[in-house]
Design goal:
single chain; alpha+beta; Ctag/Cox11 (Pfam 04442); 3 helices; 28% helix; flat; disordered C terminus
């Protein structure tokens, strides 16, 4: 009888540990998407660009080097929008603030809300590509037939020239893809992530 009591305690303790592990894994599953987004925004991983304030941009000194930015625009399959950059490339001095425009047009007979995902190529430059203002920070709703110009204000951090892995890069591609957001999901996304 004394041997059965320690065995029962061990089994109970093991069961509690396993329930705790299962709950921790479930919580990690729900937290993984926001944590991954934060990780990418902080590190520039996978070509994720960085956000900058106007005050931070004003403090940047324009460097002597030059770089070219190429623009790309797409929509997901089945989204009835036309979306493209108004310029193919912009040549600039590193650290110089620039503005580029994209044009979006709703070809459908009903309003469509979209949200843009984005990245830069090569992936290594994501942490140096800084956006001050961008249509990609918020969802965009276009009425039937509506056509709009969408600006992005950005600069390339001069620290790119000090990084041995990026100092020889002379062109960056900034790419956006618009995704359709379901009406109910659009409202839920705005409530869940007000920083978008």
């Amino acid at each position: 009888m004394t041997a059965a009591a320690p065995t029962a305690n061990r089994n109970r303790r093991t069961a509690l540990i396993m329930v705790g592990v299962a709950l921790a894994m479930l919580a990690l599953g729900f937290a993984s998407v926001p944590l991954y987004r934060i990780f990418c925004q902080v590190t520039g991983y996978n070509g994720t660009t960085q956000r900058s304030t106007a005050a931070q941009a004003n403090a940047v000194k324009v460097a002597a080097g030059h770089i070219s930015v190429r623009f790309d625009g797409n929509v997901e399959r089945g989204m009835d929008w036309r979306f493209s950059p108004q310029q193919i490339t912009q040549d600039m001095r590193i650290g110089q603030r620039m503005q580029a425009f994209y044009t979006a047009e709703n070809l459908a007979k009903e309003p469509i809300t979209g949200v843009a995902s984005f990245n830069v190529e090569p992936d290594l430059v994501g942490k140096y590509f800084k956006k001050i203002q961008c249509f990609c920070f918020n969802q965009q709703t276009l009425q039937p037939g509506q056509k709009v110009d969408m600006p992005v204000i950005y600069y390339v951090d001069p620290a790119i020239a000090d990084d041995p892995e990026t100092k020889d890069i002379n062109q960056i591609t900034l790419s956006y893809t618009f995704h359709k957001v379901a009406t109910g999901a659009a409202k839920a996304l705005d409530r869940a992530d007000p920083a978008r």
